[in-house]
What we know:
The complex is a heterodimer of chains A (356) and B (561).
Chain A: E1 2-13, E2 16-27, E3 31-35, H1 42-50, E4 57-62, E5 65-69, E6 72-73, E7 81-84, H2 96-106, H3 111-124, H4 140-152, E8 158-162, H5 170-187, E9 190-195, H6 198-204, E10 207-212, E11 215-220, H7 222-227, H8 232-237, E12 241-248, E13 255-258, E14 263-266, E15 268-269, E16 275-281, E17 286-288, E18 299-309, E19 313-320, E20 325-331, E21 341-345, E22 352-353
Parallel strand pairs in A: 3-9, 3-10, 7-8, 8-9, 15-22
Antiparallel strand pairs in A: 1-2, 1-4, 4-5, 5-6, 10-11, 12-13, 12-16, 13-14, 16-22, 17-21, 18-19, 18-21, 19-20
Chain B: H1 9-35, H2 46-53, H3 55-88, H4 94-106, H5 109-120, H6 126-135, H7 149-157, H8 161-174, H9 177-185, H10 190-219, H11 222-231, H12 236-242, H13 250-277, H14 298-326, H15 342-350, H16 354-385, H17 391-399, H18 406-416, H19 428-452, H20 456-464, H21 469-497, H22 503-506, H23 514-523, H24 527-550
Helix pairs in contact in B: 1-13, 1-17, 1-18, 2-3, 2-13, 3-7, 3-8, 3-10, 4-8, 4-14, 5-11, 5-14, 5-24, 7-11, 8-10, 9-10, 10-13, 12-13, 13-18, 14-24, 15-24, 16-17, 16-19, 16-21, 16-23, 19-21, 20-21, 21-24, 23-24
Amino acid sequence: MADVELSGLTKRxxxxxxxxxxxxxxxxxxxxxxxxxxxxxxxxTLRLIAGFLEPDEGTIVVGGRKxxxxxxxLPPERRNMSMIFQSYALWPHMTIRENVAYGLTLxxxxxxxxxxxxxxxxxxxxMSQFADRYPGELSGGQQQRVALARALVVQxxxxxxxxxxxxxxxxxxxxxxxxxxxxxxxxKYTTVYVTHDQAEAMTxxxxxxxMNRGRIEQTGTPRQIFEExxxxxxxxxxxxxxxxxxxRLGGSGPEIVDCGAIKxxxxxxxxxxxxxxxxxxxxxxxxxxxxxxxxxxxVAPAEVRRQVYLGATRDYLVALxxxxxxxxxxxxxxxxxxxxxxxxRLPPExxxxxxx
Amino acid sequence: MARRRFDPSAPIFALFALLxxxxxxLPMGWLAVFSVRGPDGAATLTYFAQLVTDDEMxxxxxxTLIVATSVSTLCTLVAxxxxxxxxxxxxxxxxxxxxxxMASFVTPxxxxxxxxxxxxxxxxxxxxxxxxxxxxxxxxxxxIDIYTVYGLILAIANYTFPYVFILVAxxxxxxxxxxxxxxxxxxxxxxxxxARITVPLVLPAIVAGTLIAFLQAMNxxxxxxxxxxxxxxxxxTTKIWSMFQYPPQPGMAAAAAVPLLAVTIMLxxxxxxxLGRRSYAVVGGKGAQARIIxxxxxxxxxxxxxxxxxxxxxxxxxIALILTAFAKTLTITWAPEGFGLGNFExxxxxxxxxxxxxxxxxxxxxxxxxxxxxxxLIIAYVTSRQxxxxxxxxxxxxxxxxxxxxIVFGVGLxxxxxxxxxxxxxxxxxMFIAFLTTELPIGYQQFQAAFRGIxxxxxxxSRILGATRLRSLRDIxxxxxxxxxxxxxxxxxxxxxxELSAAVLLYTANTKVLxxxxxxxxxxxxxxxxxxxxxxxxxxxFAVVAVAYRLPRATSIxxxx
Lengths: 356, 561
């Protein structure tokens, strides 16, 4: 049974549906990432789950208990959840120990039990030596750990994270991604994690939910989302990709899309309607100095517009006969000067036709 | 299934809004009614016609315009360089000068006017006495006469320039100096950078300061009441006041209040536009340390300049008040036997008005400060957290009184509460309403700023961990807002105990406050007693300011009309 279940969840601000008929099931112990650009409704969805907002339509059911519906929302304090905020929201007038103990004090645990559990969680998050400092005396990364400790110590049924590490600098961000995942593997709370950073989602999530304009574009494992995007939005949002557009030629067998300068056989995906976008990842395009041997499918002449040496790879911009530009990433030892005529091949097993 | 319990906050806030609306708009409504209602009860525009045709009305209008324009120009010309010298140069003693400017800021203008009366009255003025003594001149010779339009402009400007100073100095403090460095690196000279970068960035603050100074001068009642009336001319505020003396002309007074109200609203709008449109000038926060310009030997000239300004506004007037408080006679003899404690004995043991006035002032100050703090705290919380629908209305109502000059509000209150069903005239309640309402904007601004500093996620973090709204208010918000509560209380208290322009229309024999007593004493020429009461008022003010500034976190000075 799903532990967190959103059905038909809708929230409007004025006439704008910020969250639009969202359907989602999060299994017990799963870590789900809501991923999307700013303004896509992911944070609003999280705040609806937390109970800071009341939905206009739809329901939120957690562990079989209906928490939110139009006109009836259990206040946040009675949901047995924890949340980690973008600003960390550490209380500046309390020490680290007091911050972490607060949730336990509210639950009226005996003092020695509180002390034991606070000590344990500070140990897990490597923050024991800072217990008597104030939040203002800690670095961003340390504050982040305190926020994690404060949220985890109450052993919530559900853990909510709102862009928890986007305020950290790049190195620390990478470290904290694995830290979040490590703590999740240790405690296995049902977790909803909001982020706009695809690498963060890939590292931490069991399930990624890509959102756009208040709606869910696609739900799947990180691998599914990356390799089998259903829409142009998802393909573009996760990892660099080239999108070519063309007329669908129909017929049985694999999808064939006529893009003008190149006719693409797409062994993956299926379009809808008259035309379809085709997605192919940057590193999956092959560049050849001369016409490649084989059946000639998905091959076309092109010209190198520019190329950049990036150490491990080279980044090429190539143009087809009709001027359509494509980006390709190759091993760095393939060095073809700008202006050189070449051949490109878009392997059919890598081309994915998308719903339009 | 979660059932939402009945939420009592919505009807409570609705009631709150209604009460505020009554507080603010009932007096203004009556003001409007009286301004167009003739003696026979029929609608008429004669009062407004009189306003622009009757010489008795036109002259005060012109005087007011001259005074307000001169004061705002003078303040801008004097205070802008001062702000720059203190914020951006190595002028010595910048900190004491800043403190003296603050002292001028909290000095009640009517008290400053009295002090300048003591300094520069044509015969008894200390400056003229010294002048005659120094040059061996006769009794009719004088250096300066305060009972003139120039004297009035001087007396008002001395206590108005801090508005410009504060706005410009804050503006300069907030310009990140890398904006100036960027200009220097491109090859601009120091002066060119100042002219092309610094001045344009701080210009909105200068314009805003000028407008505020204009409003302060235009709506000032105390200074012209003390200086213009003996000199035989009126400004609009004193003219309005005179219409409540015998024979009363309430309709005319109401009509005369309308231009003050209209100009105030208009200029506040302009001021907001000036500060708002180029808000990039004041964002960017505390970047690098502001670059200090070295003045060389000129810094002593700069100090002399700033010293002269604060001497005129604070040092000399305060010396005059202290001398007068201890002097036995009005003509100061300079000999030790000419000084004594007679004035203190008179004020504290003989003068029958002192005790009730002190009591009334303190009572009203404490009540207005306490109620005002509570009300604005709640409103600011509601608006900053957008806790109830219609919170914007509450915010608007709490800000609206800023656009109502004290004397105009006094006139409105007079009309609103002198006839059934609400006869409050002659009670302390009407004074309380006046002080509370006029000080709402100060408190609201303070708390808005404070709540902006308390991220809403701090509260949400405690809610999600299991605290109810009340519990998180107690555990999280209350400790973080304490500083703002104390400082707001102090600001309202200071503003309330010095209020004169509304009080002077609303007091009766039993409800005199300190400012009114000082005003009365001035009409009788009791300068010694005034000096004692004035010093007392200043002592209380400075004590309260000291409390406010000793709080752990610095609070901003309200810079409103």
